[in-house]
Amino acid sequence: MTQALLSLSRQEALRADLPQVADLLHHRRAGEIDEAVIDDMVSLSWLEWLGGSLQLTTTGVNICRQQQPK
């Protein structure tokens, strides 16, 4: 699935969920992340598989930073 196939509302929902996903990854609790969320975030290049581990991409990190209150 590519970014173009995800609706704008789905992308916005994923954007809102990304900080929580990042926190779960930080605490090594990736198993608690819904597989559909993982697939969609990978298709958006916000997450990537590296050596069997799921991690945020640079884009994902930047989006998380945008979500932080100023």
TrEMBL record:
This is Uncharacterized protein.
